[in-house]
Amino acid sequence: MSRRWDIAFMGVPYVASKSISELKEIIDRYKNVYRESGHDEKKINIPLAVHTFVAESREEAREIAKKHVNLYLDTRQYGRNAQFEDLEERAQLLIGSPEDVINRLKKYEDAGCDHIMMLMNFGGLPHEQVLRSMELVAEKVMPAFKVKKEPVSL
């Protein structure tokens, strides 16, 4: 079995894997090694940085973000072999309507990721569009992941 630098998943998913299922395997291996090394798995943090752009519709989001994702990838040594379509096919972008992004985030959550860093200002995206995307994330995406806290008795 060949060894991989599994720590790489704690960054940009398309650098470390070709799919969410492969990413899940990497996360599971990492958690196993973490546990076997005597650490408490409840204290582990699995962060991923994912390019994110949210618009009212999937079509609008893709139309706006595609050229900016490709520009970003073209200017990165580790991204030059990929384009928007490649990452979208591999479910490695958070680009679409609020519902699309919620569904994709749930897949990452199911794979073991518990922390998403949304890369929202990439490839020359206009400032106004970045701000609008951030507003949609705050208003329509984040509420789907609100943690319900149990009441504390004193």
Automatic annotation (TrEMBL):
Domain Luciferase-like: 19-115
Pfam families for this protein: Bac_luciferase
InterPro entries: Bact_Lucif_Oxidored, Luciferase-like_dom, Luciferase-like_sf
Matches recorded under PANTHER family: LUCIFERASE-LIKE MONOOXYGENASE
Protein name (Swiss-Prot/TrEMBL): Alkanesulfonate monooxygenase SsuD/methylene tetrahydromethanopterin reductase-like flavin-dependent oxidoreductase (Luciferase family)
Highest classification ranks of the organism: Bacteria, Bacillati, Bacillota, Bacilli, Bacillales
